[in-house]
Design a protein that fits this description.
heterodimer; A: mainly alpha; disordered N terminus; B: mainly alpha; Rna Polymerase Sigma Factor, Chain: A; 2 domains; 11 helices; 78% helix; globular
């Protein structure tokens, strides 16, 4: 619904009048414009001009190519074949195979990695540093860490924007 | 000669091997495709070559048309992409395909045009000349809306835009068209208003 009833600048008037002419104004907006057209000389004059452009455009004619155009196209395509549909030559089995390869690779690395850990050893003796004495403020003040966090925030905002845009699109389609 | 079949039926015939059936689609859409191409190329020879290329591309890719949109909407997407590629190539070749430059040429030709128009007394000719003075984006969106029977949603799909963006682009294009008509054809416009 167009709720921009107070937009009476020249651009605003034109936009609202174009919507009115195209029939895309809401019923409420339509009745407001009809009242304005009866009472406001500026609106009436502007409407007359835009309607004239609209009608001229509707009466404009299409350009025609040369008489031989269809013949030329048919001569060209007689040498060609229709390409198979994109979906038919992208083999799903190949995509599945690539996915299986990478999943297997990741699982193999994880299995190998866990296999290297000595689960029976005591945790405290194996660690080179005492975790309770680590100064975390130094790590989180680090420039790289700040940059990393900033990238994450930007990525988060980007994803949120995409999510909201999709939601808005779905809402409009439903309306 | 018209076969009386709709676009989808013709496409099915072509896909099942009847290549000659494609001529009906070419006949049906050649004026639309040619007019749109002309909005980009600004000359008939290039427009004819580009339009021919568009129908050949559409034929090659016909198996990809799934019927989820109108055939014309799908075809105009190919028109848009092919014309943009054509303009890029042309810019690389000439380094001088500049719309403002074209407007200057249009301005300098103004008196000749006006004389011609007065002679023809044709509103249609005035509109066509005014459209030629617009930049390609404006001319394309106006042609799609008024001459190619495309809704705002379909225009948005062809141009790869949101519907609201396409709507704003159409409003602005029409306003610029009105300004061109007032600037270059003020006498004729006065007669109309």
């Amino acid at each position: 619904m167009n709720t921009d009833f107070n937009n009476t600048g020249e651009d605003g008037i034109e936009e609202r009048l174009w919507n009115y002419i195209d029939g895309t104004s809401s019923a409420e907006e339509k009745s407001v414009i009809e009242k304005l057209l009866q009472s406001d000389a500026e609106w009436k004059a502007q409407y007359g001009e835009l309607l004239e452009v609209h009608q001229l455009m509707q009466s404009s004619e299409l350009e025609a190519p040369s008489m031989r155009f269809t013949k030329n196209v048919m001569e060209e395509i007689s040498k060609l074949h229709i390409a198979p549909a994109t979906k038919t030559y992208i083999n799903k089995n190949i995509i599945r195979g690539i996915a299986i390869f990478f999943i297997t690779l990741i699982v193999a690395f994880l299995v190998y990695g866990f296999g290297q850990i000595n689960w029976t050893a005591k945790g405290e003796t194996n660690l080179p540093v005492d975790l309770s004495k680590v100064d975390y403020s130094k790590i989180f003040n680090n420039t790289y860490m700040n940059a990393f966090m900033m990238i994450n925030v930007i990525l988060g905002l980007f994803l949120l924007d995409r999510f909201l845009a999709n939601k808005r699109k779905k809402f409009r389609e439903e309306v | 000669m018209s076969t009386g079949l709709n676009d989808t039926e013709i496409i099915s015939k072509v896909l099942s091997g009847d290549q000659q059936a494609y001529a009906e689609l070419v006949n049906r859409y050649q004026n639309y495709v040619f007019t749109l191409s002309l909005r980009f190329t600004k000359n008939r020879e290039d427009a004819e070559e580009v339009a021919q290329d568009i129908f050949i591309k559409a034929y090659r890719a016909l198996a990809d048309f799934k019927g989820t949109s109108k055939f014309s909407t799908w075809l105009y997407t190919i028109v848009n992409n092919t014309c943009i590629t054509f303009l890029r190539k042309k810019r690389l070749q000439t380094h001088s395909l500049d719309n403002e430059g074209m407007f200057e040429v249009a301005d300098s030709q103004d008196s000749g045009l006006r004389a011609n128009l007065v002679e023809q007394k044709s509103r249609v000719a005035m509109v066509n000349e005014a459209i030629k003075m617009l930049n390609t984006d404006d001319a394309e969106v106006i042609t799609l809306f008024y001459k190619s029977e495309q809704s705002l949603e379909e225009i948005a799909q062809i141009l790869g835009l949101e519907t609201n963006t396409a709507k704003v682009r159409l409003h602005r294009a029409r306003t610029r068209l009105k300004e061109k008509m007032e600037k270059h054809f003020s006498e004729e416009v006065k007669d109309i208003y």
